[in-house]
Amino acid sequence: MAIRNVRIPSRQLYINGEWREPVKKNRIPIINPATEEIIGDIPAATAEDVDVAVEAARRALARDDWGSTTGAQRAKYLRAIAAKLLERKSELATLESLDSGKTLFESAADMDDVAACFEYYADLAEALDSKRKTPVNLHLDSFKTYVLREPLGVVGLITPWNYPLLMATWKVAPALAAGCAAILKPSELASITCLELGEICREVGLPPGALNILTGLGPEAGAPLSSHPHVDKIAFTGSGPTGVKIMTAAAQLVKPVSLELGGKSPIVVFDDIDNLDIAVEWALFGCFANTGQVCSATSRLIIQESIASEFLDRLLLWTKNIKISDPLEEDCKLGPVVSSGQYEKVLKFISNAKNEGATILYGGKRPEHLKKGYYVQPIIITDVNTSMEIWKEEVFGPVLCVKTFKTEEEAIELANDTKYGLASAIMSKDVERCERFTKAFQTGIIWINCSQPTFHQLPWGGKKRSGFGRDLGEWGLEKYLNIKQVTEYTSDDAWDFYKSPSN
Fold first, then answer.
1. What pLDDT, in 10s, does the model give residues 394-439?
2. Can you tell me whether residue 325 is helix, strand or coil?
3. Mean pLDDT over the full length of the chain
């Protein structure tokens, strides 16, 4: 249930366990995408604030209250954060919807996932204690060896606006579980709940500097964080062009990065599916959930020719039945896109598709009953060819483009016809076919007879221009650990490589 009269908190930057005004005292307005009204503001960090946060993080690593903690000690903090998040679930979900335009149902589900993710990494933090020092047996008795897992150091976490607190948690929780000191830079388009995470960390007594939160613009806050000489790693989720800039800046210092840069994912539907409506709903959910603002959205629907006409008829009926409204309204299933810039971008994609000869089968306009807000009807586009922009480029809006195929070979070729490689989906009852496609899909995530279910126990990430590295699961923890090889010579005998001068 939404708290309709929820107050938008006025926060500063969260640095060294306290609220701190930005050095330049600048702030950025918060615009509610459902009403286009300014509902508050957030602090705008600059390079000077990055310096302060990095220094706070380095001091945290040097102190016993964070730098020398065990995994079990860190787990207590993570569980306390999870508990506080659940206490404030209703308020945080409402803030998320007001800030980003997400439906309240999706925002509330996100808060559950956020708490569960902190709990999950609390478990992994505890398990890390037994793995921290792992003996390795050699064929030589004269050596004793082990592998040491240690926190990587100070990590910069740059996260997107489509799942503001959830995407931040995917990086914050494992970074803290590993024992790193983190600096979170969320998107300026949706930062409210990330700042509230700072207040929760303050309330539970997370040691100062273990997590610092800097809101602000990419060029002014994200860029100096990426290029800072005392930040040991950057983990980024966002657009390809920004990912390239981050990777370029990090390369000057040979700094490790992990990148999740979006996609143009396919969902392939075969004619052997038992229930057309089930497949139709997954196709819709795969593209229109979160108003299509999903990096893994299966926005290329590839249907077997023999069922294409019937499938599209059902798809239209289902699409017309989607409730588009204020995100706080009950049963709203499609809210506004996040900003005026994103709204114009989506409309430009539709216009370009028309100009290139595609057919707008449905949608693409403002819903008649909504005069304000960045709302656009869900869009289904047919008569698409593989040279069109709408087939190639990520829209990040509720836009589904459709092509048909006859053979498996053609379907695989169409599915892999993209520079991205994040996710793929197949709808078929043929188990062996699903196995063939699992092997053939050039992506890091594969869904069989579904699209978009995400679990924090499983690795998340892609290949090609969707980036590299993995969030979530044990893999999400490992990228915040430094691996040391330790070798000790235990024999009393001389090594006897050189001739001794005493002989």
1. 999 999 999 999 999 999 999 999 999 999 999 999 999 999 999 9
2. coil
3. 97
Please report where in the chains the tokens 């926005």 appear, as a residue: 299
In the structure encoding, which two tokens stand for residue 326, read together?
Answer: 């204020």
Separation in Å, CA 329 to CA 71, 166, 176, 286, 332: 42, 22, 36, 22, 6
> For position 1, what pLDDT does the model report?
43
- Is 260 catalytic? The answer is yes
> Which residues touch 19 (CB under 8 Å, ≥6 apart)?
11, 12, 13, 198
389-394 long-range contacts, Cβ below 8 Å, gap at least 24? 389/349, 389/352, 389/353, 389/356, 390/349, 390/352, 390/353, 390/356, 390/358, 391/264, 391/300, 391/417, 392/264, 392/418, 392/419, 393/264, 393/349, 394/262, 394/263, 394/264, 394/295, 394/299, 394/420
DSSP assignments along 122-140, one per residue: HHHHHHHHHHSEEEE--S-
Tens digits of residue pLDDT in 127-182: 999 999 999 999 999 999 999 999 999 999 999 999 999 999 999 999 999 999 99
CA 430 – CA 487 distance, rounded (Å): 52
Cβ neighbours, 10 Å, residue 226: 26
- Which pair of tokens denotes residue 431? 């188990």
Q: What are phi and psi of 416, to 5 degrees?
A: -90, 5
**Residue from 106, 126, 260, 394 carrying the catalytic annotation:** 260
Q: How far apart are CA 99 and CA 84, in angstroms?
A: 20
Distance of alpha carbon 442 from alpha carbon 260, whole angstroms: 15
Cα–Cα distance between 490 and 492 in angstroms, integer? 7
User: Is 72 within 8 Å of 38 (Cβ atoms)?
Assistant: no
What are the pLDDT digits (tens) for 255-284?
A: 999 999 999 999 999 999 999 999 999 999
